[in-house]
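Final report, Chapter 2: Outcomes

The project's central promise was a pipeline that accepts a single protein chain and returns its three-dimensional structure in a standardized token representation, suitable for archiving and comparison. That pipeline is now operational. To close this chapter, we reproduce one record exactly as it appears in the project archive, with the input sequence first and the structure output second.
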Amino acid sequence: MKKIKYIFTAILLGSLVFLTNTTIASAHVVVKPNQVGVGQRLDFVVSVPTEKDNPTVGLKLIVPKELQSVTPNAKPGWNIDVKKTGEGESAMVSEIDWTGGSIPPGQRDEFVFSAQAPANSTTINWKAYQTYEDGTVVSWDQTPNTKMSDSQMEEMEKKNLGPYSQTNVINDLSVSPTPAQGKENDQGNNLSLVLSIVAIAMAGFALTRQRISSTK
């Protein structure tokens, strides 16, 4: 019985650690989805959390030149300024600015735009600039580095810098994704669910054992 309790406790603690790390890792300005098919037209979502003590009042997103037909969705309470390069039919959206709204401290919001992905396999880098009410601008334009130490991350945050997010454009028209490609992105999302299910099952098993013991 004691062994079952130890296993249950270990699983529960593991789930809490995983969820905590996932929350910390996702506390950045990111653009989703992180994978699309070549030439696919879809909605991209910019997730913006307010991590300082004053509200977020502006967001600038640099639109990669590989994207076509970029159109931001209406956002109540926010002004949207779409900047383009070129003229006429050849004009391309190069930047989207959202201003005039507010995201309170400790909260997040989403900004949506539609676009057509590049026709070739590539990686899209999403550089963004988040403006706070006190005038502070956090530049999400640094190259992602998973090997960065905690001290390096803290130093980057002090300078109001952060890594940009990425979207992988894959050729899903002629070649089926390998099992590893599909599972790699799902593993992190499914792990917390699996751990929770296992923890519930173990708890139910422990209660059943306890009831059987008490009836003897």
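Archive annotation: The helical segments are 2-25, 150-158, 179-215.
This record, like all others produced under the grant, will remain available to the consortium after the project formally closes.
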